[in-house]
Amino acid sequence: MSFQTQVNATPAPAVAGDFASTNPRASVLAGPDGIVAGSGGLTVGCFAWLDSTAYTTAANTGSGLPDGFVRNSRSGLITAYGAEASLVIPAGFPVELFNEGDFWAKNAGGTAAVPGQKVFASTTTGQVACAAAGTALTGFVETNWVCRSAGAVGELVKISSRAAA
Fold first, then answer.
1. β-pairing, 128-131 with 118-122?
2. In whole angstroms, what is the distance from residue 161 CA to residue 119 CA?
3. CA 92 from chain center: how many Å?
4. Which residues of the chain, if any, have pLDDT below 50?
């Protein structure tokens, strides 16, 4: 571990993949053996797609609407030598995907997130971007999720599967 180089005045509001509320949530229906991370692992706080044959292996890559959002259930392991942190669930480890709920996610898009924008999922990494509905973001697919808080690029934002009330 390296020497501390920064002290924040306030703690971070969350970690990517944490619940953003206690509102009702729903996990993706899994078979008797559950869902596991595919080869290469699965990044927490991102969207995931299930394999199209058995629906038991999840990956942060896919096409069409993602099957769910990877919750931060503290199952990521630090496997890289010298690494200080990791949000990657190793291949073969159990995964809990959610298709409904309110979560914290890192805004990996090219612009700041604004409440009410649609949430887009990268088809190559599962990362989250927020933009106006119907926007053509290269490498991203528009989801049914909505951005619920403002956030600059690289900051955590709240996302929700629920439409505005």
1. antiparallel
2. 9
3. 19
4. none
**DSSP character at residue 157:** E
Rounded Cα–Cα distance for residues 75 and 94 (Å): 8
The DSSP call for residue 93 is: S
Q: What is the pTM of this model?
A: 0.90
State pLDDT tens for residues 115-135: 999 999 999 999 999 999 989
* pLDDT tens string 39-62: 989 999 999 999 988 889 999 999
Longest dimension (CA), the chain: 49
DSSP 19-78: BS-SS--EEPP--TT-EEE-TT-EETTSEEEE-TTTS-EEES--SSS-SEEE---S----
Contacts of 143 (CB under 8 A, 6+ apart): 47, 65, 66, 118, 119, 120, 121
25 CB neighbour count, 10 Å cutoff: 16
The single-letter code of the amino acid at 39 is: S
